[in-house]
Specification:
DNA damage, Arc Repressor Mutant, subunit A, DNA-binding, Methylated-DNA--protein-cysteine methyltransferase, two-stranded parallel sheet, methyltransferase, transferase, WH-like_DNA-bd_sf
Length: 107
DNA sequence: TGCCTGACCACAG
DNA sequence: ACTGTGGCCAGGC
């Protein structure tokens, strides 16, 4: 029985984010059937450190690293993205649309 | 126990 | 076309 909460589903999707790709909170929320629950996706990321979830690949709808403040360092999130070949400028992903990974389409 | 906050997005005015 | 507010679920005080 799938006693999986919306919370847990977020991790399942986030873990499936391919290398060198990024997605948005809303995209995950919408895939789960709750486009308005985007806030929960972000809140789930708070426990992402206890999971194997690449929270650094998850940004907001505008491609801005809104959650970078929750990482260890100040620009650690940016470092991780650049390490995957994703350019980040002023806390914003360059060519976000190009690297955007939509779970609704990919999954 | 109850109210408020929180890594956002969609809808309405 | 833009700005403002509501809403979703869960956790913290």
């Amino acid at each position: 029985m799938e006693e999986i909460s919306f919370f847990d589903k977020v991790y399942e999707v986030a873990k499936q984010i391919p290398y060198g790709r990024v997605t948005s909170y809303g995209a995950i929320a919408k895939y789960l059937g709750a486009a308005r629950s985007a806030r929960m996706v972000g809140w789930a990321m708070n426990n992402s450190h206890t999971k194997d979830v690449p929270a650094h690949r998850v940004v907001n709808r505008a491609g801005i690293l809104t959650g970078k403040n929750h990482f260890d360092g100040s620009n650690m999130m940016q470092q991780l993205l650049e390490n995957e070949g994703i350019s980040v400028k002023d806390n914003q992903v360059v060519d976000f649309q190009k690297y955007f990974w939509d779970p609704v389409v990919e999954l």
